[in-house]
Structures are given as C-alpha cells and as structure tokens.
C-alpha cells in the first residue's frame, strides 16, 4: 500500500493495483459557501498537480473540503465516482457520468480487486450522516479505514482488524457550538476497535494557511506526541506515522495471515 497526502483531507490511495483519489482539494483556495471572509484556506506552495492514471474518485462528504468543486472540475468526467449522498449530488451537478451513491453498510466492487464499504461518518445537521469507508484488497485482504471528522461508528468492531486507519488525532472546537473535528478520544477508539498496524492523522496540519472569522474562533487541542502517549498507556501496538504533504509513502505492514498461521 502506498499513500500520498495532499493536505487537509485529500489523499491518493494505491491499493490492490488501483489508484483512488480521496476527497480531493488540489487547486485554488478552499472556501465554504463562497464566503472567504468566513473561512479560507490556501497552500504556501500553490496548487498540487493532478495525479495521473486515477481509477476512482471517492468522496466521503459533499462539503467543499471533501468535494472541492474547482478541483473536481479539472478531473475527467468519465471517471467513476463513489460518494456519500451529498458527495454524489455534487458530482452529478458537475457532470460526472458514473456516480455511485453508497449508503451505509453497502459495498462497491472495483474490477473484482478492491472492495469499498461505507459506514456512518460525521453528522451534518440533525438529519444527515456522511460516510466513512473501509477499502479492502480482495486478493491480499489488506485494508484501510478512513473517516475525516472523528466519528467512528461502533459497527466497525464487526470488521476488525483493519491494517491502516486514517483519522483525526486532534480536536478543533468552536466556542458554544462544540467540536467540528474530534480526534483526541475518538482516534483512541479507532485504535481499540480496529487494532490497526498503522494510523495516519488527517484534517489538520500540512502546507496550508487558514484565515477568516471562523478560523479565528477555532481552538485546537492535541498533538501526535499526546496520541502516541495514549497508545502506549493503553498498551496498543499501533504505530502513528506522520507523512509530509505531497510525499508518496509505502506503508510498512506485516502479513497478519502469516502471523496467524
């Protein structure tokens, strides 16, 4: 398995011989609702190049930091898209021709090589819950869990173990409103429930500068060092790996089938 992190929640996942572009924000600023005074994110180093030979676009949410319209407009509309309800709506509105809406508990099979299963993810208001995903190589069994806001579903316990987990490890909180990203405790839940060999943080850090009224009010809590300490205190062998934005990284994994034998 190879992973490339493009800042924020954007990843390229190379698994089962497939290249999955996940929640891409690669070009231009990140703005919610065309209100840059409220929130705006920009990269120090400018735009990221669009990855070549993409096999699938995977969207966990329909918000701009997961389904970024300026980025999606640069992608081939013939590429297949698997998405949450909101993400599928954005993709269809932008003219993508093959959009599969994946409800919770359902699976999508890519060329009989890669399985994607949807789980409940982050709640968006009282009526909508976005997606988390587990991706699995159907030949080797190698698997990856992704959820970008820190809302792991207890139903994940049924499919443990998972080899790699991508999830927040810090909290981002707004006064009065509470957390918009929660990771300090929920990342530990992911480690307990899924017993991943490796965890990678998402949603925070990277080569991005944020500004605006919303960003000024955000309060961050937690760090990689804090989380490693929590893993150790709970006698969990999971390794936390921090990757540099734009760097393609091979994830070191033991063959659990061999260990079990």
Automatic annotation (TrEMBL):
Pfam families: Lactamase_B_3
Transmembrane segments: none
Keyword Hydrolase (UniProt): yes
The species this protein was found in: Oxynema aestuarii AP17
SUPFAM superfamilies in alphabetical order: Metallo-hydrolase/oxidoreductase (SSF56281)
GO molecular function: hydrolase activity
Family annotation (InterPro entries): RibonucZ/Hydroxyglut_hydro
Gene3D superfamilies recorded: Ribonuclease Z/Hydroxyacylglutathione hydrolase-like
Protein's UniProt name: MBL fold metallo-hydrolase
UniProt keyword Hydrolase present: yes
Keywords (A to Z) from UniProt: Hydrolase
């Amino acid at each position: 398995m190879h992973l490339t992190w493009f800042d924020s929640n954007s990843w390229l996942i190379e698994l089962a011989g497939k290249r999955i572009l996940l929640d891409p924000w690669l070009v231009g600023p990140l703005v919610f609702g065309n209100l840059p005074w409220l929130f705006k994110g920009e990269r120090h180093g400018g735009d990221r190049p669009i990855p070549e030979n993409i096999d699938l676009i995977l969207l966990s949410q329909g918000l701009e930091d997961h389904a970024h319209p300026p980025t999606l407009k640069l992608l081939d509309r013939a590429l297949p898209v698997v998405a949450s309800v909101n993400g599928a709506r954005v993709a269809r509105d932008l003219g993508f021709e093959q959009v599969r809406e994946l409800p919770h508990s359902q699976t999508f099979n890519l060329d009989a090589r890669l399985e994607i299963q949807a789980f409940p993810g982050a709640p968006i208001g009282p009526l909508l819950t976005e997606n988390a995903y587990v991706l699995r190589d159907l030949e080797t069994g190698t698997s990856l869990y992704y959820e970008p806001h820190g809302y792991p579903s207890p139903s994940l316990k049924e499919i443990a173990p998972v080899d790699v987990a991508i999830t927040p490890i810090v909290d981002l909180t707004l006064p009065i409103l509470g957390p918009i990203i929660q990771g300090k405790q929920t990342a530990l839940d992911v480690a307990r429930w899924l017993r991943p060999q490796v965890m990678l943080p998402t949603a925070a850090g990277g080569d991005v500068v944020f500004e605006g009224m919303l960003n000024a009010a955000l309060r961050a809590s937690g760090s990689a060092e804090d989380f490693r300490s929590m893993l150790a205190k709970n006698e969990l062998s999971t390794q936390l790996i921090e990757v540099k934005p734009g760097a393609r990284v091979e994830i070191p994994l033991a063959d659990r089938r061999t260990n079990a034998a």
